[in-house]
Amino acid sequence: MTNTSDLILSTSVAPHVRLLTLNRKSKRNALSNDMIVDLGATLRDAAIDEDVRCVVLCGSDAFFSAGADIKEMRERGFEAIDNSARRSAWRDVANFPKPLIAAVEGICFGGGHELALLADIVIAGEGAVFGQPEINIGILPGDGATQRLTRVAGKSLAMLMILSGQSITARIAMQAGLVAEVVEGGRAQIRALELADLIAQKPPRSAELAKAAVLAAFQTTLDAGLEFERQAIRFAFSTADQQEGMNAFFEKRPPNYRGN
Where would you find the membrane-spanning parts of this chain (predicted)? Predict the structure, then answer.
């Protein structure tokens, strides 16, 4: 399947893997309202498509995204970044239930960095840079960085990036836990697709449950998170894929996971 709006290109690149490409190159993939809404709609479709087990999100070789659309903000003010359609679309991204991998090359700033923070795994090219420069135009992050960046990277680095507007390298981002792997420049998408293909071969319900359980660690207490984990694995044991996985292990053959 290949289709969607001109702003978000959607391509099936391997069995059960969908590649989404931010496609507003003339604006360095600035996240306009239309672009965020289209991304949310595309992920909603992928969430209910049983053929999709993992999604890779990428930009171009020079930039993942330069951030929110400053022209829109100048013309519309606060309403440009705080309106019902945009909020709903960000929720669609945040609540996407399947594994989501971001392949980041070049600039990943502002809203683009906040988008990367919503990925489950970030693969960065060596030359990628990450930043929250909103303070340089008299505002502050408005799409989640004050909360998500702090939870992932800690107070000190979050404060440095948000208060100074300074960016950090891919290597520093990896040390801080924002990035899972740093690869040679130009190879982030290749590596992300390799990883997506590997994940797509796993039992999809278990992958979704595992994602939800890990995210629970950021959203609840330890005791509540552990209980969520117990209930998730209880459900996994009730699936046909669990039986297939264990049978394949003892029969020394590759498993054939069907998502049930």
Answer: none
